Amino acid sequence: MIKVGDALPDVTLQEYSEVEGNGCSIGPNPVKVREAAAGKTIAVFALPGAYTPTCSAQHVPGYVQQFDDLKQAGVDEIWCVSVNDAFVMGAWARDQKTGGKVRMLGDGSADFAKATGLTMDLNSRGMGLRSARYSMLVKDGKVATLNVEGPGKFEVSDAGTMLAQAKG
């Protein structure tokens, strides 16, 4: 399992953008994790799936609401990572109104989840291999803090915890 001090995995996530801009086509567009994280402070949070109850009602909205405070605390970007394809993440981004605040990154083949060692087997629920619920503060591509939730929990990966760690 990834731990504090480790570099982010050298994998590629996918992002779908609603609007073209800054030379970026609508998508899906590859996001090379190590390259995208270089020289930045990033609040990364991962969750089991788009449109799932806790993820849609609490996890994503918390980061959208705390965007300004996280920026003031020195966070350059906020990433939401889920084992979904870029099109699903793009539609969920529109639904959650994350534009310009949270980058919704698809880990369709679970490469990022597997590389971090933070996976959940949800085959019995028809969802396959998914990401565990967690958050991490990443500085220049290295994990500075890591908050992994227990099964079925939402207590330490929330935006408030991340904000306290970013300020710390």
Name given to the CATH architecture: 3-Layer(aba) Sandwich
C-alpha geometry: globular
The ordered H/E elements are: EEHEHHEHEHEEEEH
Rounded to the nearest angstrom, the radius of gyration is 14 Å
End-to-end CA span: 24 Å
Output the number of helix runs: 6
CATH fold annotation: Glutaredoxin
What is the number of independent domains?
1
**Overall CATH class:** Alpha Beta
Strand content: 25-35%
Largest sheet: 7 strands, mixed
Total beta strands: 9
Characterise this structure.
With 168 residues, the chain is α+β, with helices and mostly antiparallel strands. It has a single domain (12-167), classed as Glutaredoxin. The protein is built from 6 helices and 9 strands; from the N terminus they run ββαβααβαβαββββα. The protein has a 7-stranded mixed beta sheet. Strands 6-7 form a two-stranded antiparallel ribbon. Strand 6 (119-122) and strand 7 form a beta hairpin. It is globular, with a radius of gyration of 14 Å. The mean pLDDT is 93.
